[in-house]
Specification:
Elements: H1 2-25, H2 27-48, H3 51-101, H4 109-124, H5 129-187, E1 194-196, H6 202-210, E2 214-220, E3 225-231, H7 241-256, E4 261-264, E5 272-276, E6 279-286, H8 294-307, E7 312-316, H9 322-326, E8 331-332, H10 337-347
Amino acid sequence: MEKQEETNLAGFFIIVIIIAALLYSIRIDIQDFWSSVTNTFKTITTFIESQLFFIILAIIVLAILIYFVIKWIKSIKRKTEERKTKTEEINKEAREIDKILNENLDMDPEELSEFIEKIKERIKICKTSNHEELLEEKLKIAKKYLEEKVKIKEIKQEKLELQNDMEEFRRKVEKVKQDKETVLRKLNIEQNQVFKKSDLNIKETEALKQEGFEQVNQFDVLERKQIPVLIKPYERLNHSREHIFLVWSVKRLLEKMGIEIIEEHLTKGADITFKHNKKWFALEIETGKLLKAPKQLREKVNDLNKQYLNRWLFIVSNEKLAPRYAKFGLSTPRNRVQENIEKLVKNA
């Protein structure tokens, strides 16, 4: 440890000796440098004390003052320009916002949606709280107006669809009506009051029911069994469904028997008259109503005897009525109509 310290101390003395030798070698240069510094200092001192120094100093100070004045003026001008620019921006914003605030909201929903987005964008870059509040209020109104517009549009669309549906329904009703009229013309309901159901299709059946025809089951004198038929009572005549059916059924039987001249009488005379071998015969359809008016019944029998002596026949709707009508003339129930008509024609 001590040996290391001795080594370090020796090194220090060596460095000192080297520096001292170096300084000694340049002693003349050092003396010259110091002499130069002294002379320079004297020259500067002399210059500072001269009038020229103060003139130069004044010029420098004046230049500095002029620089700061110019800088200050530029600063004021810049701030003025900034205020002017800001004022113009505010005025421009105010004009744009006024345009937005005064915008008429009576526009299409699509246009109104775009206008709402425009307000939102303007709010983001708005520079004044007052304008922002006004824009927020306008935005609320526009959104509410849009909701109403959408509702109105939906209502109009629903109305249009309803009108289209109604028009389509009207066309269908008109077609059904035309189809019905075509069916009814084909069926010739002005001349026919009874239709056999098995002869009708579904459209014809529905058309007849809509015209007041009613479905009933009646015993047919031709087929000798119950058959379903559609019957429409005469509006101005007090004829029952049974009466109307029996007239129709008997006429069918007469046609099947080969009788060509057959006439139906709705008001006066016998219900049915037909001509065979140059002689006229009469058939009176009875449902029992005439039994309640004996005088009228006797008058009818007298008229029949005068016009068709031994050539007329009561056809009763109910088998039990046959004996009661037999007191006034030849009568037959439904199940023996053909048999008794044949006898009537043969014995005439």
